[in-house]
Amino acid sequence: MTERVVLAYSGGLDTSVGIGWLKDATGKEVVALAVDVGQGGEDMDDIRQRALDCGAVESIVVDAKDEFADDFLMPALKANAMYQKRYPLVSALSRPVIAKHLAITAKKLGADSVAHGCTGKGNDQVRFEAAVAALAPELTSIAPVRDLALTRDKAIIYAEQHNLPIRQSAANPYSIDKNVWGRAVETGFLEDPWNAPIEDLYEYTQDPSIPRDADEVIITFASGIPVAIDGVQLSALAIIEELNALAGKHGVGRIDVVEDRLVGIKSREVYEAPGAIALIEAHEALEALTLERDLGRFKRGVEAEWSNLVYDGLWFSGLKRSLDVFIDDTQKYVSGEIRLKLQGGRATVTGQKSEQSLYDFSLATYDTGDTFDQSLSKGFIEIWSLPSKISARRDLRG
């Protein structure tokens, strides 16, 4: 029986080239696996057929949109996940769910290996292979594009020489990755950080500089998870999709950043994540209302570590699992409503309320009805600053 390899197939240049190389170089039958994580823009049946046209013996499509939203994006939202405080982990979050289905499919078909179309310079090669190693350590990972040291222009030539049915061309050299959480664009003229992005790069967002009337939206959360928009209960996936449209209309979520890749180089990336940024803004505001001070402070450090782990491909690591337990516990009282104003590229919180709120009007007000006993502050400050006072006296003696 001929051995099989299951290839994570996107329908793009790298994985289309990968089918041909894997078949010729290893002698294995190639099974293409396309995982729908809400990338849109192209019919998944067309992608399935393209894989067959490129030489795959079997082409499988998995609809993982709800799974992606519920099991991967909602944990990220609870963690307010932003790598280097800028990037909402658009690609990094989709890789573990794709790797999970790679491992499941390989086991089901009796394949001894899996493959992906990543280069040797990016983060995704690590994310796929580390996830597969954690889920199915018996499987071997193969990276045809990386192992052939193909540059993007060489891959285009290879595809043209082998008549592969792909849309990539030398005139459109961008590398684009997208899912329901956002869209990433790199390579081409963007490799020079001095070059400003052009409007044609964007798909999920409209130009925020064009004047538009603001839209207002109320997001209802239950234990850290968005459950309704303007009082209408929706699934997590539907909420993200609706906010992509609403916030995207106002250009919310455009990000232009030079980030530190796991492999040690810096990379210029352009992202657009309207729904993700709107939800994170709302979620952080609700946490400010419902989390006690020290818990909120500590959680912000955990969020940074959580984001680093996911960016670095360690979704299935022990530390990540343990941090999930902590983050889930912090969300017990993160329930309520947040009102957002969407306009001019920004999602601005204009209202917040919760039955679990720690905001006490009678303590906060400066008007009549103030119940805060200001006479207690003098003694508090004396005790609070005592270590600094004692240390300062020593410094003066020295």
TrEMBL record:
Its main location: cytoplasm. L-citrulline binds at Y87, N123, R127, S175, E259, Y271. Pfam families: Arginosuc_syn_C (PF20979), Arginosuc_synth (PF00764). GO terms for molecular function: argininosuccinate synthase activity; ATP binding. It is found in: Cytoplasm. Residues 174-390 form the Arginosuccinate synthase C-terminal domain. Residues 4-165 form the Arginosuccinate synthase-like N-terminal domain. Its EC number is 6.3.4.5. GO terms for cellular component: cytoplasm. L-aspartate binds at T119, N123, D124. Keywords: Amino-acid biosynthesis, Arginine biosynthesis, ATP-binding, Cytoplasm, Ligase, Nucleotide-binding. Pathway: Amino-acid biosynthesis; L-arginine biosynthesis; L-arginine from L-ornithine and carbamoyl phosphate: step 2/3. ATP binds at A8, Y9, S10, G11, G12, L13, D14, T15, S16, G117. It catalyses: L-citrulline + L-aspartate + ATP = 2-(N(omega)-L-arginino)succinate + AMP + diphosphate + H(+). GO terms for biological process: argininosuccinate metabolic process; L-arginine biosynthetic process; urea cycle. Homotetramer. PANTHER family: ARGININOSUCCINATE SYNTHASE. Belongs to the argininosuccinate synthase family. Type 1 subfamily. NCBIfam families: argG, PRK00509.1. This is Argininosuccinate synthase. The lineage of its organism: Bacteria, Bacillati, Actinomycetota, Actinomycetes, Micrococcales.
